[in-house]
């Protein structure tokens, strides 16, 4: 693995016709990094196309065009796997048609089943390819594609399970993040100040958070409860139940099924409780906020655990398995951390060591290097 330097391999961009395809699924973990890279590439004068499945409406952006590619998961019953195979064949055919029409200089895949047809088509057409590995555990789709792609970009400096024969293809670029996510000083210095707790649980909120956290708060000393300012993502169907639980405490609480303006919310937070998708871990790392990560126990290959472990190894966060995530245990954590501002501030500084603030620029630079190498431009 090597770090992508922005000074490496100066490329005369005026000599390049820059047409680039990004292939990604429709979930936030794939959407946000692809959008971030797309914005950077478009700002540099590239023609950017997004190839995604039907959920790709989230990619609507004036800076790049979207192409719908059929795709489906392969999990579940025999019938569902058969459907997935049919969609893969159809999606690969559609991708072949559009890639021949557009003639891109490079195709970048951001993982997920929806990116696979486009990547297979690009490899078949011998178009230079990059796969971006968001998580700290090498995913199944990327393991399938690894022997055939030009380069593998990673979000974390260490990624588990990359086969040894392909490690010479690996470049550490970091994970492109939303533009509102920026480093921010940590401002908690007094034990009696209001304490802002941000709770995010993925795009739909985690039910377990709504069950465990209010009960944990109720176990705290009333003085600590009154300090708490809690902003929590919560599924709409559980809002009333969670509100009732919090009404039995002294905490000030804001609940919402969807949290926007995440840059500002991270900036205000003194502690974040979250799942451990790659974007979640690296967003709080870039802002510099200490976090308690609860990896989603059913994530493929347990990849959220490996993401969280990177932050734990940097001494910038804490990790609890969901089966260990109890109200009593969380109350002990909260009581200790709310009365130890120095510990939180140090963890906030430590977690920033795994963040790459200019990941979009570094990945865009890797794209230019690949195009230049293929066209023999020095």
Commentary on this structure:
48% of the residues are buried. The chain has 2 domains: 2-176 and 358-374, Glycogen Phosphorylase B (Rossmann fold), CATH 3.40.50; 195-354, Glycogen Phosphorylase B (Rossmann fold). By secondary structure, the chain is of the alpha/beta class. It has helices spanning 28-43, 78-102, 116-124, 140-145, 207-218, 222-227, 239-246, 262-268, 278-287, 303-313, 327-338, 341-351, 359-374; strands at residues 2-3, 19-23, 47-52, 65-68, 106-109, 129-133, 151-154, 170-172, 195-200, 228-233, 252-256, 271-274, 291-293, 317-319. Strand 5 (106-109), helix 3 and strand 6 (129-133) form a beta-alpha-beta unit. It has 13 helices and 14 strands. An 8-stranded parallel β-sheet has the order 1-8-7-6-5-2-3-4, sandwiched between helices. It has a 6-stranded parallel β-sheet with strand order 11-10-9-12-13-14, with helices on both faces.
Layout of secondary structure:
Elements: E1 2-3, E2 19-23, H1 28-43, E3 47-52, E4 65-68, H2 78-102, E5 106-109, H3 116-124, E6 129-133, H4 140-145, E7 151-154, E8 170-172, E9 195-200, H5 207-218, H6 222-227, E10 228-233, H7 239-246, E11 252-256, H8 262-268, E12 271-274, H9 278-287, E13 291-293, H10 303-313, E14 317-319, H11 327-338, H12 341-351, H13 359-374
Helix pairs in contact: 1-13, 2-3, 5-7, 5-11
